[in-house]
Amino acid sequence: MTYDVVIIGAGAAGLMCAATAGYRGQRVLVLDHANKAGKKILMSGGGRCNFTNLNTTPQHFLSTNPHFCISALKRYGPQQFVELVDRHGLEYEEKAPGQLFCQHRSQDVLDVLLTECEWAGVEIRLNTQIKQLVRHGDGMRLQTSQGRLDVGAVVVATGGLSIPTLGASGFGYELARQFDLEVLPTRAGLVPFTLHPELKQHLASLSGVSVPVSVSCREQAFQEPMLFTHRGLSGPAMLQISSYWQPGDGVHVNLLPGASVLEALKVFRQAHPKASLMRFLTERLPKRLAQTLCDWHQWHQGHIADFSNAQLAEIEAQLCDWWVTPAGTEGYRTAEVTLGGVDTRQISSRTFAVEELPQLRFIGEVLDVTGQLGGFNFQWAWASGVACGESF
Ligand code: FDA
Predict the structure, then answer these.
(1) Which end of the chain is more exposed for a tag (fewer CB within 10 A), N or C?
(2) At what angle do helices 12-23 and 107-119 cross, to 10 degrees?
């Protein structure tokens, strides 16, 4: 059997591209070194795959070339993926505004993709190592653990570096370098923060506590829940801001976003002069957090009437102007995505082909395009996969 297109990586982008190219009459083979296709899809969204976001815009993506993603996202938007899963009868729900999750399990999304690949006549070979890839005339030659293949085009859909136990590898970056493409520095994104020992000790008793906060760093702000963990800080707020954070940066946290806390403290002091600050706090924050803050900042537990305006202003600052300087992140071991990657400036935003070598293409997360939390990364995988597949 000979193939027109070989796709390296049976993940979200690779399978989407394979089905699209297969429907266009291309003989498509997907190769993956893992023993199962779509492992990240299965793990995603806490086992229920947040497969798209209805509010996707190019502004939800980080890239040194921010215009690159516009074309593909415009041609294949969230609604098109919803139509696809609807045709398969997949049941889903909007868990947060725009964020669509499987009602049952992530496997349902993978089943849609594998069924599409089957209908499109795509062949998938797992447990296959790619040993070498070279240009061969107008096409490409692959040396694999299962023999040699001469094909018209190769699509690299090997994803990022996060969670190596799910099959992640830097192979796509190695290939890019081999063909003289620039690979922008990579780092873990959508990843929990670790803390310096002293702060970690203050917050140790809070593991498992979640609280809605607003966080900001480098002119990006998010209002989402924050989760205290035994290693540091996580939850959607911290995962989101981690993609913008650089080592050494402080992260600004407001534990009581919304109304003016100083005003509320003064009103409370007027209304309940004999109540404690702890009561004010437990009406607004989880009890364990309120207690930890009182102990940490040594706020006294006498009558709130005994606090001066200056003391209340200081309490407000400690609640609403908390600057945390993380020690680091948990890294690729737990990160949802990889920031950076293959520089898109040498790639066509229409076909995803390397400009100087159109028989070689890169799609999905291996590229320097990374979505925020909320289904955007899968939408990028679908959109880039379809755009590339349609160009064959
Ligand atoms: P993906 O990683 O899906 O696929 C790459 C494939 O290439 C894998 O099958 C791998 O085995 C294969 N491969 C790698 N190296 C190879 C080699 N050398 N030879 C052969 N094959 C090789 N996003 C989102 O939008 N909503 C969500 O709910 C989540 N949830 C989530 C949870 C967790 C735990 C993680 C780690 C990630 C998410 N994500 C997410 C992110 C999302 O999973 C990710 O962005 C996409 O899977 C990227 O799709 P790709 O196809 O580019 O790579």
Answers:
(1) N
(2) 30
